[in-house]
Each structure stands twice: as C-alpha cells, then as structure tokens.
C-alpha cells in the first residue's frame, strides 16, 4: 500500500531529530554515505514505531541522488525531504567539499523538486559558517543561485577557492541562495523549501571536538556567545518541524539561523576576534 514518504539524507543526530518529529505514519527512506550508519538509524527508528528502508548514497554523486529519488517514489508520495548530509572543512579537501556540499545539495533540491507532492516541504541543513562570509557581489549571488548544479564548480570565483574553510563557507552560502532560487519552482507544485543554519550543536562529532586538541577555542567561542551554550539536535528539530508543518506554509525560500546569537556576536560583539581566523 502506498504511503506518504519522508526522505532523510544523512542519518546523523540532527537529521534523526527532524525525522522523528515529521515522519510518524510515513515511510522513511534513510540515505547515508555509510550503509552501516543508515541501518543503525533504521533499528533505532523502527524500535520507536517508524517504518523505514535504507539506501547507501553519496551526496556528491548525481547517480546516487537519483537512486534515492527512485527509492522514495517507489513507496508513495514524497512529502518531506531533509538534507542533513555533508562534509566539514576538517573532513575533506576543497574539491570534495564543493562537490558534496555545494553541487550535491543543489542537485538534491533540483531532482526532488520534480517529484515533491502537493503540501510537501524540504529543509536543507546549512550552517552559520555561510553567514561568516562577507557580502558577495550581485553577480556572484546570481551565479550561485541560478547556475546549473554541474556548472557551479566552473565559476571563476569558485575555482579560485584554495582553503577548505572558504570552500565550506561558499558552499553553505550557495545552499541558502539555491533555496531561494528553488522556492518558485517548488511553489508551483504546492511545496515549500527552506534552509536552517545551525551554530555549534552537540552531536557525536561536536563532542569529539569539545574533547579534542581544539577544545579550548570551541569552549571560548561557546561561552562568549549570547546564549552562553551550545545547541541541541532537538532544538533544530523543533524549528524544522515548524517549517514543515501546516504552521510553516507561508515560509519558503528563506534561511533561518539557529546559533544562539553567535553570528551576531561574530560581526558586532564579543566574538569579533574570530574574524582574524576566518
């Protein structure tokens, strides 16, 4: 029997927090670079009453994204798409960050925008990091927003990126611009698409950093932020639930920062010292 479908790309803490809030009664497709990670998430969700299937998929590969679309429509109408996959500046070289975080996310929005059901919604997990990039020119914004995904890495200013942090920041800025660009197309199908830009959220990876060699810098940044603490996956999940619910239907094509005020402090407050390292 056909069901409504929720797709999660990247079965980590934030993605799972969102899925648990929006996917009750739906079939959940769990796509992850690591099939072991997806299977582990499947067991956890099934033990909580969700129906799931898994598929191994690399966000940096168009064929894999198309395979996830095919898997999703097999089960029924695609109502929710959550992209919480990606690689960080410390995990990958420049080209891979751009291929996965910039190009892959753009392809995902483009392809799921062809099959999303009426009343459907998509949330892209971006990052506060994209808000630390100075203002781009109007031409650069237009190019990142409107270029075909396969042409993004051909843009001159993108090809000039040599630093992994800059690659990540440009990718996340591109995510936000692509969400805005895609909103019109998704709207024609009666669906919404938005992005969320989290700050430091406590996940297993973040916990490693907070206990690793760079912990002092992270702790100082957290303590000096307006909130004075890190965030939790559940707080991101609550925001995503609102955007994907009937209460969020008038919101599309936008990005919401959920960072405890860290970005505001980075530009104008106690965290301005970080600009020297970014």
3D architecture notes:
Helices cover 46% and strands 17% of the residues. By secondary structure, it is of the alpha/beta class. A seven-stranded parallel beta sheet has the order 3-2-1-4-5-6-7, with helices on both faces. β4, α4 (94-112) and β5 form a beta-alpha-beta unit. α3 runs parallel beside α4 (94-112). The termini are far apart.
**Percentage beta strand:** 15-25%
Contiguous helical run count: 11
Helix content: 40-55%
Strand order of the largest sheet: 3-2-1-4-5-6-7
Q: What is the succession of H and E elements? A: EHEHEHEHEHHHEHHHEH
Nearest-integer average pLDDT: 95
Shape: globular
Instruction: Characterize the quaternary organization of these chains.
Output: single chain
Distance from N terminus to C terminus (CA atoms, Å) equals 51 Å
Strand count, sense and barrel status of the largest sheet are: 7 strands, parallel
Using DSSP, what is the number of strands? 7
Strand-pairing-aware structural class: alpha/beta
Gyration radius over CA: 18 Å
Which residue ranges are poorly predicted, with pLDDT under 50 across at least 5 consecutive positions? none
């Amino acid at each position: 029997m056909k069901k409504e479908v929720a797709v999660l790309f990247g079965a980590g803490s934030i993605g799972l927090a969102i899925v648990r809030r929006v996917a009750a009664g739906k079939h959940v497709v769990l796509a992850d670079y690591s099939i072991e990670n997806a299977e582990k998430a499947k067991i956890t969700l099934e033990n909580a009453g969700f129906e799931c299937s898994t598929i191994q998929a690399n966000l940096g590969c168009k064929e894999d994204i198309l395979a996830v679309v095919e898997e999703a429509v097999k089960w029924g109408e695609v109502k929710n798409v959550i992209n919480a996959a990606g690689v960080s500046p410390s995990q990958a070289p420049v080209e891979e960050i751009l291929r996965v975080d910039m190009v892959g996310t753009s392809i995902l929005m483009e392809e799921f925008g062809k099959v999303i059901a009426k009343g459907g919604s998509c949330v892209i997990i971006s990052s506060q990091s994209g808000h630390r990039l100075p203002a781009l020119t109007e031409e650069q914004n237009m190019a990142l927003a409107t270029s075909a995904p396969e042409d993004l890495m051909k843009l001159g200013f993108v090809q000039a990126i040599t630093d992994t942090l800059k690659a990540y920041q440009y990718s996340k800025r591109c995510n936000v611009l692509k969400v805005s660009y895609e909103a019109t197309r998704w709207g024609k199908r009666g669906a919404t698409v938005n992005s969320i830009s989290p700050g430091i959220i406590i996940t297993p990876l973040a916990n490693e950093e907070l206990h690793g060699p760079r912990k002092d810098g992270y702790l100082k940044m957290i303590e000096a932020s307006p909130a004075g603490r890190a965030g939790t996956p559940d707080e991101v999940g609550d925001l995503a639930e609102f955007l994907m619910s009937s209460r969020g239907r008038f919101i599309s094509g936008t990005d919401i920062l959920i960072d405890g005020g860290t970005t505001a402090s980075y530009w104008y407050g106690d965290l301005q010292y970080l600009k020297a390292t970014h």
